[in-house]
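quick one before i forget lol
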Amino acid sequence: MSTFTHAGTSRLNGSVKVRFANDALRVKVLEKNGHTEVDLMPLPNPMTKEEAVAFLLKIEFYKNDAGVINSEKQAAIEDAQERRTPQAGSKDRPKKEAKKPKQPKKPTMAGIVAKVEAKKAAPKTTLTKAEIEAQLKDIEDAPF
């Protein structure tokens, strides 16, 4: 399982999401790729994503120094926690049945007739020997 030394949030295309990194220089990479409001902090020790999200909630990372709650950050962290924690009873769920392979369609007489007619109506794309010889006579010899 991967561990990370930094965690936080950033905004990309209007939505705030939790980000994980192993280096503080990740901020520059995120900003270069269009992220704004990048806010990563070092974790007290290397943590998995699940542990890091729990830590961010524990320290109330979504509050600023004045104690004002950033509801978008809070929602992003809580959403990440919901996605990363195992659901109760998830092991007890019945497994989905495998899809049955589709049976190939049986050809119909109308379909066969339509294909034959389409081939007959198709323009002729090959040239006859006489047409090729006529085109070769019209071509000038190369100067070399």
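fyi The two ends are 69 Å apart (CA to CA).
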